[in-house]
Design goal:
This protein has 16 helices and 13 strands. The protein has 440 residues and is an alpha/beta fold. It folds into two domains: 143 residues, Orthogonal Bundle (DNAb Helicase, Chain A), CATH 1.10.860.10; 223 residues, P-loop containing nucleotide triphosphate hydrolases (Rossmann fold, 3-Layer(aba) Sandwich), CATH 3.40.50.300. A hairpin with a 5-residue loop joins strand 11 and strand 12.
């Protein structure tokens, strides 16, 4: 009898690569069921468990988990784990090993499908259509047809779409929402409040139990969490951070320490938002590493979207690219992540210099044309040059005590899968508030 397709050496090398360099596992698109040899299935399953539970780990932790589960002897003991590390002399070939394992796994699945169909054919049951559909799925293709499209339409009519919502449902109906499997750009002027708006957006998604990954490369985890708490509780984050603020007492600026009840409110809000399914990665990484991190969080938490705040701050491989080449790699990698993981990727980009009286357009986004061309929609937080436009659409602009414009427009300025739209909002950036504005 012929032996089913598999490669013992590739399976050993894949496991050994990960034992030597645990960071490799996040870039290897395989699972335990893709392995043919039983003990390799067991080892890979525990590699994934240890990787999911720890940001950093080593072979000793895997050894201990297998031992605690009573499986160490079953896989060949400590000696076999050491042997596997000796096989993988070049961990950087890990994706090649994974690809061969996946190809052999697909071949075994095809053989199983065909054998089952043959048995049923002998019993007089035709399996032709089923075989074709199953083989297409095995090879990573979706058997799309008219029925699939009609099902999507029926779901859309009931409000069920493959999208990520913004905080404004009526705007999403016009634009079609933020599509999964695609890249969306979000931009705004410096100091316009776009990072604070993201905290507002994260709270909105978190309160609806939509798991997301936030990659705040500019403002980091602590700052983002403080803003989320401030947005949730509508309190002055700067005052809490400083421990108080200056108030006028008989016309004299006097320091006033934050009160216990104010600090307790901030703590309660921070505790509340920390329970949202909003996960963070704020360390500097390359585009390839970003993909690995996204894959890890997709496996562990089934994230539906990834927000990259500061795409320009991704780590550039030394001496590899000029600015245009690196922009293109970032853009291509974002598209790969969105499509392969079927998540929405929202990439936050900076702007070129533009006159104070101009509203943002796609032409103002910093970087090569590929960034906008590869995205499916572009959103901007408009903060300047909007007064006349607001008047034309029957809204009155608002200002703070220092005559700074506090009105913003959350604006879908380009959309390849629906209409453009906008939402006029009032802001209180000290409290991270974005409130829908009514017409004057």
């Amino acid at each position: 009898m012929l032996e089913l397709p598999h490669s013992k050496l590739s399976e050993q090398s894949a496991i050994g690569s990960v034992l030597l360099d645990p960071t490799r596992i996040d870039g290897m698109d395989i699972c335990a069921d893709d392995f043919f040899i039983k003990r390799h299935k067991v080892i890979w399953e525990y590699l994934e468990k240890v990787n999911a539970d720890n940001h950093e780990w080593d072979p000793i932790m895997v050894h201990n988990r297998l031992e605690d589960a009573g499986l160490l002897n079953e896989i060949g003991g400590e000696d076999y784990l050491l042997e596997l590390q000796g096989v993988a002399v070049q961990p950087y070939h890990s994706q090649h090993y994974a690809k061969e394992i996946k190809e052999k796994s697909n071949l075994r699945k095809e053989i199983d499908i065909l054998q089952n169909a043959t048995r049923m054919a002998y019993d007089g049951v035709s399996q032709a259509d089923s075989v074709i559909g199953s083989l297409m799925q095995t090879n990573g293709l979706e058997g799309q047809n008219v029925s699939n499209i009609m099902t999507e339409w029926d779901k859309a009519r009931k409000g069920i779409t493959n999208t990520i919502p913004t905080p404004y449902p009526d705007m999403d109906k016009k634009t079609g929402g933020i599509r999964k499997g695609m890249v969306t750009i979000f931009t705004g002027r410096s100091k316009s409040g776009k990072s604070m708006f993201l905290s507002h957006w994260y709270n909105y998604l978190g309160s609806r139990d939509i798991p997301i990954l936030a990659v705040p490369l500019e403002d980091k985890y602590n700052i983002t969490m403080k803003r989320m708490a401030s947005n949730f509780g509508n309190y002055n984050n700067n005052m809490v951070d400083a421990g108080g603020n200056y108030v006028l007492v008989n016309g004299v600026p006097t320091w006033s320490e934050i009160q216990d009840h104010q600090l307790q409110k901030a703590k309660d809000c921070l505790e509340r938002v920390s329970k949202y399914p909003v996960y963070f990665w704020d360390k500097k990484i390359t585009p390839d590493e970003l993909k690995s991190i996204a894959m890890k969080y997709k496996r562990k938490y089934d994230i539906q979207a990834m927000f990259v705040d500061g795409a320009k701050d991704l780590k550039r491989p030394s001496g590899k690219y000029n600015d245009t080449g690196f922009d293109e790699e970032i853009s291509q990698k974002m598209c790969e992540i969105a499509e392969q993981l079927d998540i929405a990727v929202i990439s936050i980009h900076h702007l070129t210099k533009l006159p104070e009286d101009e509203m943002i357009t796609c032409n103002h986004i910093r970087g090569s044309g590929n960034i906008v061309g590869d995205s499916r929609s572009v959103y901007a937080l408009q903060s300047k040059g909007i007064e006349k436009f607001l008047g034309a659409i029957k809204y009155s602009p608002d200002y703070d005590a220092d005559e700074n414009l506090t009105t913003r427009i959350f604006h879908c300025i380009s959309n390849n899968h629906g209409n453009t739209s906008m939402k006029v909002i009032n802001t209180n950036l000290s409290n991270c508030q974005f409130i829908e504005k009514t017409r004057s």
